[in-house]
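Thanks for the sequence, V.! I ran Ribosome assembly RNA-binding protein YhbY right away. Repeating your input here for the record:
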Amino acid sequence: MLTGKQKRYLRAQAHHLSPIFQVGKGGVNENMVKQIQEALEVRELIKVSVLQNCDEDRHEVAETLSEGAGAELVQIIGSTIVLYKESRENKQIVLP
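Predicted structure:
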């Protein structure tokens, strides 16, 4: 579980990132969760954009993705979700 200080740090790190996944009309599926897991292993911190045509609530999408990928939900800002998961092999982010 992340502390407030760690979340603040991760939010600052994520600020300049662009969303690399988009959740649209189809919602969240197994394949997307698998790809997000792989992306988190490489990058540790990613942004996911929830499109206007997505039927699910962005909070539900965030919960589904973080649980499915075993990641920490750093923040939901507008329609963007920030996820973090410590990488086993490509550790780059050192938390305060």
